[in-house]
Amino acid sequence: MSLPSETMNPAGTATKRPPIPVKILISGGFGVGKTTTVGALSEISPLSTEAPMTSAAIGIDNAGDGSLKTTTTVAMDFGRVTIDDSIILYMFGTPGQDRFGFMWNDLADGALGGVVLVDPSRLDDCYVALDYFEKIKLPYVVAVNQFAGRATMTLDEVRHAVNVDADVPVVGIDARSREQVKTVVLTLLHRILARAKARKGD
Amino acid sequence: MSGAGGFDDEPEHEEEESFGRPFLGRAMRAEPVETVPTSEDHEGHEEHHTAADHRPYLLTGGRTGGGESGIGIETLLVRDTAVIPRQTSWSPEMSKIIAACDSAVAVAEVAARIGLPIGVVQVLAGDLVTSGVLLRSMQPSMSLADDVLFIERLINGVAAL
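Output (structure tokens, whole complex):
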């Protein structure tokens, strides 16, 4: 399949290297607003791609809430933001259910951080994502989608309910608002920065 | 061929069942196996097949994931316009991948735009990078998450959006 080296550039004619990709994950349960969040900041309409479900994943599939899934692929939505000539940010909306766990190693590999979207009326849906991010020590923020002012819990109540560390930011968000999504991403990036600085100091 | 004989074609993929077991699946449905493309008859004669007709597994010669090549779902690909490939006929799937990489684009985006599973694009893009047709984004020498200057640049960039 590989070609001989004659196809390579003559020495010195440097072609433009692709920019550096940066990946952050937007996670949470179905219908919590992942795609809306991605779309609010993305310069392209959120794209959807399918990831094949492995037999192993089917075996551990915990779709116990009556939503019996019979297809063997799952959709993953994502968007792109060009930061500058040399950085492109991709936001991956990742299904936050147990049964998608098989995707997460691929998704999280090289990810800078994550946003856990929370629907206050369905808190349980975010636990899988929280557990996973904590397990792999991925910096994350909790964003409570407030669904156009339909605030059912205060942020403090959510923080208490989902039991995250005191230093994990818990912020409100209207997933449709570009500015608010931007703010959440910035909050995440500042958290990543703080950790990078702390490590450097070690 | 007896049922057990089908295993001979796929000796080492017991744990790589991302796409099921296409050979077994075909055998059980008693479909003709000669639709399986080989390297000889694969060049451009398959237009009547859509990618969906093939098990993704077959498009990659049984390989899965971006493992060895280190091609992640966010790895950026771009066509190297300085290269005149000696090989000019690619499989239909590879041709689509090349065509989708006129500007730098992530593996996941290529997959979404041409309608192939990410895992297939990871493998085929790895081949195309190896053959020099595509350039890939470099893997940073240190974790970006530990690169203070990089994160600061990223923050400034996002804030300026």
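The two ends of chain A are 46 Å apart (CA to CA).
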